[in-house]
Structure formats: C-alpha cells, structure tokens
C-alpha cells in the first residue's frame, strides 16, 4: 500500500469534489399518463375480490392418518357419496380427508348426520374468519 503525499491528497480530494459536484440525482417530477378506465377497472376488481368468499364454507373431516389409508377412505367415500366433493389435505404429520363445501351450517350438519352413519370419527370444520 502506497502512502500519498500531501500534494497528491489535495489533488485527489479536489478531483473527487469536482466530480461529485457534477453528479445529478434523478428528477423527482414524475408524470404518469393513465387511462381513465384503469381506475374503474381497479374498483370493479376490488368489488369482485371482496365478494369472493375464501374459506367461508363448512367442511367435514372424515379421516386423519397415513397416506394410503387416506387414499382408500377417499375412494370409498367417493363411491358411496357421489354428489359430495372430497379431497385429501396434508397437515403435518397426517393426511386428512375433507368432504363437502357447504355454504351453511345447517346444510353441513344434515350431511354430517348421514356421513356419521358410515364413518365413526367425523366432525364439522367451521370456516375461519
């Protein structure tokens, strides 16, 4: 490493200040040209998103356990109850068979009574708010 002489230090400092003086930052004036329909579309999208219900349906859990048993339970359920949706959800460390997509608690409880006749460890899952 080389040590600078006082004259070199002064020269480099002067050059640095001179170069830094000419540096310009970006202008803060931004002009945005936006189609007026864009705001209307954005508001319409917000209304649609607000009306979509996420996790606002009741489900019934009919099984929780190992993967192979969950697949068999799902297959058996789909054969017996063809008009009710069913799926497997992995929730560490178990696979859960969830059935239904019921809009109201009354509808879910009616189906729960029917499903309880066939499956023993059955319970209703409330929607999370």
UniProtKB/TrEMBL annotation:
It comes from Flavobacterium shii. GO terms for molecular function: peptidoglycan binding. Keywords: Signal. Residues 52-129 form the SPOR domain. This is SPOR domain-containing protein. Residues 1-25 form the signal peptide. It holds the Pfam family SPOR. It comes from the Bacteria.
């Amino acid at each position: 490493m080389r040590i600078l002489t006082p004259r070199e230090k002064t020269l480099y400092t002067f050059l640095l200040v001179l170069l830094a003086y000419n540096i310009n930052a970006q202008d803060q004036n931004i002009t945005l040209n936006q189609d007026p329909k864009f705001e209307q579309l954005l508001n319409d999208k917000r209304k649609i998103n607000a009306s979509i219900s996420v996790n606002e349906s009741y489900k019934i859990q009919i099984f929780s356990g190992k993967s192979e048993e969950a697949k068999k339970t799902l297959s058996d359920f789909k054969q017996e109850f063809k008009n009710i949706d069913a799926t497997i959800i992995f929730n560490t460390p178990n696979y859960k068979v969830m059935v239904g997509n019921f809009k109201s608690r009354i509808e879910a409880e009616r189906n729960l009574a029917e499903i309880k006749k066939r499956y023993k460890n059955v319970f209703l899952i409330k929607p999370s708010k």
